[in-house]
Hints:
Layout: H1 11-21, H2 31-35, H3 42-54, E1 58-60, E2 67-69, H4 71-101, E3 104-111, E4 114-121, E5 136-137, H5 143-146, H6 154-163, H7 179-192, E6 195-198, E7 205-213, E8 219-228, H8 234-255, H9 260-272
Antiparallel strand pairs: 1-2, 3-4, 3-8, 4-5, 6-7, 7-8
Amino acid sequence: MKREKTDYIVQSVCNALDILETFKDAGELDIRAIREKFELSKNNMFRLLTTLEAHGYVERNPYTKNYRLGLKNFELSQAYISKIDLIKTTEPILEELVDELDESSYIGVLRSKSVVYLNVVETSQFVRIVPRIGSVGSPFRTAIGKCQLFDDSPEKIRQRIEADEQRIRGDQRSPRAGIEGFIEEIEAARLIGYAIDDEEFEEGVRCVGAPLRDYTGRITAGMSVSGPIQRMSHDHIEKSIAPALLRAASKASARMGYSSHVQQEHELTSLSEPQ
């Protein structure tokens, strides 16, 4: 017998979500006002509110002791909006970048152990490098992945690699093999603002990637340009590809609310966080 979707609903979760929705039309509520809206015991109501408070979904006004929505709701809404707006915001910039360089350009986001390609604008060149939208790549072998590690401490990068099922191994095509060598590569790339995949993900292909930052200063995505090594010499990358990519990434970040003021605050926060 096929089970209905309602058979899988967890009532306590429903109660917690219902509590959150009561704040849509109210700035603050005391526990009595919240209880009046639900048939829950005082003990159950207190447990739910305490759990929501522990996770940042509600908070208490230190003066009135009333409950109100916590910052976690804002963070989730911004995360949702940013993913919707990311493609719309960056697509015209990608198109301008492709018009300028005549090489395919991409947007990708780091998710767990992979980079997911969200958008691609193709070059008009006969030979082109075009990953499928939704396809995934290694954050350690792609420029679009490497650049999204720029804010990670060496220890965080080391943990990412060690947690990956396919760790960085020696590769005859790349002189920058091994965990410590990779960390040094990211440190050097961070200083110039972009990372390079030198035939590490696909033989015969070079890629340059730069991070995109949002209004908080955090890296939320990467932008990259790829092409066959015959058209992507290191000299061409340094003189033409990288400067154009950095301009495009800066423009995209600005449209997502990033500014030099945010950058300064983000750098100060990063310095105060334990490494």
